[in-house]
Write a structure and sequence with these properties.
Strand content: under 5%
Structural class: mainly alpha
Helix content: 40-55%
Shape: globular
Radius of gyration: 38 Å
Length: 411
């Protein structure tokens, strides 16, 4: 069955990728532990690189040829390995009964039994379970994006010229649509090539300092391409819905991206105490709002992360440097050096058997022939027994006999 064969190949690839992702998770955890006091931008770069590497593992595992270790099969020069002699078969017992099903000469008892025909194909079952999980996770992402699109269609353009001026002065090369929601939704940005910035309806009553800090935070998301990174994290959760590493990476990516954008606002000159106050006030205004765009897309609406963000904002000793392009290139190179060898490490798919072709026919002949004790002894001329075969003992089965005379000539 073609579907069963494809499911078997897929299951082998899935198990291989799952084992490789464990190594990737260990490396990511060690990197995050080492960079505990580093900037949020650097930690977000490490996490996003791990997400990209996790998505690249199935492709590398399916395309890169496997590494074969051949040094274990080599022998020392000038030294040959002698073939092992075949083991002596035990003496067979005389039996006149017909061969029983399941014996050496009979068929196996479960080769054509109904139990063997109705045995479930576990590879196909696991494949269908994985497809169901992917469908549920993809539906979750599609519903979140549909909610954002519906929210955007209900928005109106912002008529505040200070917001438009701040966007134009940010230096973004992509055109940004600034919209005002008719409801109190969290501030959010979405879209990659034509990004959209959405502000809640209550932003009309915000003071200029709070409005400028919120717009600067959302502009930082657009400049850092956080929309694309979060979509990659959601794709990883769809493919690896069974793996805790994918969900850990997606959650950590949201935390570090929010803190990295907070650092960008603080580097722009906003005092940390004022910015923390603005953050708490914005979330207080949105506390009773029922319009949520989804945890993956409306990142600022996560109230469980407010305490960590406020502590990071007020920490004067925290490193707030932005990751440079050289750091990004270095992270991608290191990820490639990790993913490519992992993709080449594959389990053995073929077993090695050592058989002796020259002795197989003899062994079959010995198996099919009756025991030597049941055959009558062959006689030579004048009733003399024939000579023994070379390499075998001259001892008979019933004990040693008299030695043959030296003058006896065999024909």
């Amino acid at each position: 069955m073609i579907l069963s064969d494809l499911a078997g190949h897929w299951l082998t690839l899935l198990v291989n990728v799952a084992c490789q992702s464990v190594v990737l998770g260990i490396v990511w955890a060690m990197a995050m532990l080492v960079t505990g006091r580093a900037s949020a931008s650097l930690r977000c770069l490490i996490t996003s690189t791990a997400v990209v590497a996790l998505l690249a593992l199935p492709l590398t595992a399916a395309t890169i040829p496997a590494w074969r270790i051949t040094w274990m099969n080599r022998t020392a020069p000038g030294r040959a390995i002698a073939p092992r002699p075949p083991a002596a078969a035990p003496a067979a017992e005389t039996s006149l009964a017909p061969p029983v099903a399941g014996s050496v000469h009979g068929s196996t008892p479960d080769s054509h039994s109904p139990a063997a025909q109705t045995r479930p194909d576990w590879a196909l079952v696991i494949f269908l379970i994985w497809m169901a999980g992917v469908a549920v996770a993809a539906m979750r992402l599609c519903l979140a994006m549909r909610g954002v699109a519906r929210l955007t269609r209900a928005c109106v353009p912002i008529d505040d010229q200070s917001v438009r001026r701040q966007i134009d002065d940010s230096g973004l090369r992509r055109p940004v649509r600034a919209l005002l929601s008719v409801a109190d939704c969290p501030p959010l940005t979405w879209g990659q090539f034509h990004p959209v910035l959405v502000l809640p309806a209550c932003s009309r009553d915000w003071p200029a300092e709070r409005l400028g800090a919120v717009v600067a935070h959302e502009i930082a998301h657009i400049r850092r391409d956080d929309w694309l990174l979060h979509i990659a994290g959601e794709f990883a959760c769809c493919l690896y819905w069974f793996h805790p590493l994918a969900w850990m990476l997606a959650r950590r990516l949201g935390i570090e991206s929010e803190r990295a954008c907070d650092d960008c606002v603080l580097l722009a000159g906003v005092p940390s105490s004022d910015y923390a106050t603005h953050l708490v006030d914005v979330l207080r205004d949105l506390r009773d709002s029922r319009h949520r765009a989804g945890a993956a897309l409306a990142m600022a609406s996560r109230q469980s992360l407010v305490h960590g963000r406020v502590e990071a904002i007020l920490d004067a000793r925290r490193n707030r440097h932005v990751a440079t392009r050289a750091m990004i290139v270095l992270a991608l190179v290191l990820a490639a050096l990790l993913v490519l060898p992992l993709g080449a490490c594959k389990p053995p798919t073929e077993s090695i058997t050592t058989t002796a072709p020259s002795t197989s026919a003899g062994s079959q002949a010995q198996t099919d022939s009756p025991p030597a004790a049941l055959l009558p002894p062959a006689t030579g001329p004048a009733g003399v027994l024939p000579p023994p075969a070379s390499g075998h003992s001259t001892t008979a089965l019933n004990g040693p006999g008299p030695a043959a005379p030296d003058s006896l000539a065999w024909p």
